[in-house]
Sequence to fold (337 residues):
Amino acid sequence: MLKKLFFLIPLALLIYSCNVEKKEYTVAFYNVENLFDTINDPIKWDDDFTPEGKLKFTTERYSKKLENLSSVLSAIDTLNLPSIIGLCEIENRTVLEDLISQKSLKTGNYAIAHTESPDKRGIDCALLYKKSDFQYLNHEVINIQFPWEPNYKTRDILNVTGIMGTDTLHIFVNHWPSRRGGQEKSEKNRVFVAKQLKEAVNKIQSKNEHAKIVIMGDFNDEPNNVSVTQTLLASNNKESQKASDLYNLMYDLQANGHGSYSYRGNWNMLDNLIVSRELINSSNGLSTTYDAGKIFTKQWFCYESKNGEYLPSRTYAGPKYFGGYSDHFPVYFKLKN
Fold:
């Protein structure tokens, strides 16, 4: 009888381990198109986003914006809600607290990682995380100072570190300088930001070449642009064995004509999701796959253009109010542990 018992215990453990499903985490990024509150901050260029301002941004419009954004974010993962949400174009911590308090997101019990950036428009990057899925350790920012234009203020890069599953995960949330003035004239700004980001990634990997890293954000550049492929060294090269090389989960989607942002009838993949090689098909801990990157789009948060194409339904176009969601689609991928 005792021998039989000793045989059954390891057998039961084997059966249990085989039936335990891998935990899955949804990681998302969303440019939320100017999520401002209605209060005039004297040190920010937010005058337009007040009831008296040019955009007539009232409490009702603000509430609708929060409801719209939360409905999109909660729909990305209707079963569990996203574990990690990177955001850009948010004004302050208050709007983040209001967002996670919305009915459709409240059950996620989200916490916030955020630091006010020096951006002249008053917009920042932030990270929302489910406390049940991500154990926050710390966060810091990479401040961007252009040597050739020291008075130009742009968004910091937010770097958040925490424990997810059995691994330490390093997350960078980005919103690179715009293409104002044209791609050729403005490209050097984004190349410079990419260099600062690459240096931060290199620093992590010099301490641990097997570090698991996620880079997300609105780069205002596409996966095949110089800043991403040559400076950040993020590509769709599946053959690379170099741990320092990064993989862009959105590269192939862009190559096939897809995009997260539409400009003058053309799709652009400005919203990028990039991971360290250690996260691709890892045999231990957190992992993802080469084809994991997705654009989240549903007809209910789009509008139909004159040629029958469904485009992001935005809140404003210039001073005209449409009451939509954002001028970008969210992007996301799944991590398994």
Helices lie at 2-19, 59-76, 93-100, 103-106, 183-207, 226-231, 251-255. The chain has one domain: 25-330. Residues 220 and 270 are 5 Å apart (CA to CA). Residues 1-9, 11-20 have pLDDT under 50 and may be disordered.
